[in-house]
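Reopening this one. Same input as before:
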Amino acid sequence: MLVLAGEVDLNSPPAAMAEYAGLFPHAELVVQPGAGHYPWLDDAGRFVAATAAFLR
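Same output, byte for byte:
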């Protein structure tokens, strides 16, 4: 499972997403620098790269 958090997301902050990821075995947390609640809009290239790397 991939949990992708935006570094400056006030709704789902990285610390809370780390706890969430900890609930699932083998979950991977990625924090996207400079991104908020919609990381695919803030930096689509970085979002796609992180997602694609996880799926490989």
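So the earlier flakiness isn't reproducible anymore. For the record, The chain has a mean pLDDT of 97.
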